[in-house]
Design brief:
By secondary structure, the chain is mostly helical. The chain is about 85% helix and about 0% strand. α5 runs antiparallel to α10. The chain is elongated.
Length: about 280
């Protein structure tokens, strides 16, 4: 074999080539991971700055009270039909599904109290917050996203109008205030739906039903649910406004902002509920 062929098939040269190619792949992976970490830290910084600006503008003297009332109307009153249907169906379905099991144990009288506690503590707040995340969060993301695409937010900044104070603060505060009220409203209708479900295969008077339901409820059942409801509203408002306010310039970014607002706010509602349940369990144990 000639010397050129020996160089061509030299194992040392082949091994060096493999090591060089592998090092190139490792460097590409390292650069990709570095870019992902940089993007994540940038997003965290943007969210932190956005929350800081919102909190700062919340306590500014020039509060947009009329816009706040308009957003309360949009979030609260406009959502009543959907929340009404959801609340009644919650109570009705829980009652119909739970009744056969309690009949087997001869504990039908405990049905109103069980449904009332489950609605007030967990089912009512979480399901209502998820419904609001789908309706209110997507609405905020789409509305602010369209304003971003059409450069209305830039026009407000040029005309010396603070868009954070006018657009974001009012929506976040309105969601924080109105979503707990919608949750209490859904709980009340859920209990009414439970009464209707009990009377499908029975005959329980309105007064007797409510005496059975509220005899098992204490103030400690209301307090954690009401407190976490305010956090649900704040999370939905912040996420919807952040996704819409920071939408891209293309028309597709409006749909992306609305979709990501629903997904992220729904996920954060579940995470907040998990944390609230753990804290409540620690305090009550």
């Amino acid at each position: 074999m000639s010397s050129d062929k020996m160089k061509k098939f030299n194992p040392v040269i082949i091994i060096k080539g493999i090591i060089a190619a592998h090092s190139v792949k490792l460097s590409e992976k390292t650069l990709a991971k570095t870019a992902e970490a940089h993007s994540f830290l940038t997003n965290v910084a943007d969210v932190s700055l956005f929350i800081t600006r919102v909190i700062k503008e919340t306590f500014s003297p020039n509060f947009e009270f009329k816009e706040f009332l308009r957003q309360c109307f949009q979030i609260g009153y406009i959502s009543l039909p959907l929340i009404s249907v959801t609340g009644i169906i919650m109570g009705l379905v829980l009652t119909i599904q739970s009744r056969p099991v309690l009949v087997d144990f001869g504990a039908v009288n405990a049905l109103p109290g069980m449904i009332a506690i489950s609605l007030i503590r967990e089912m009512g707040p979480v399901i209502t917050a998820l419904i609001c995340a789908g309706k209110i969060g997507s609405g905020m993301g789409a509305e602010l996203g369209s304003m971003k695409v059409t450069e209305q937010i830039d026009a407000m900044e040029v005309s010396s109008t603070n868009p954070i104070r006018f657009l974001v603060v009012t929506r976040v505060l309105a969601a924080t205030l109105m979503i707990p009220l919608l949750i209490l409203y859904a709980d009340a209708l859920g209990i009414l739906g439970c009464w209707a479900g009990v009377n499908i295969k029975g005959d329980v008077t309105f007064v007797l039903f409510f005496s059975q339901a509220f005899s098992h409820i204490e103030f400690i059942d209301f307090l954690p649910a009401v407190i976490k409801s305010f956090f649900f509203g704040a999370v939905i408002g912040f996420v919807g406004c952040y996704k819409g306010y920071n939408a891209g310039r293309g028309t597709e970014s409006v749909g992306v902002a609305a979709n990501s607002a629903v997904v992220l706010s729904s996920l954060l509602v579940i995470i907040v509920d998990l944390i609230a349940v753990q804290i409540t369990d620690m305090l009550m144990s």
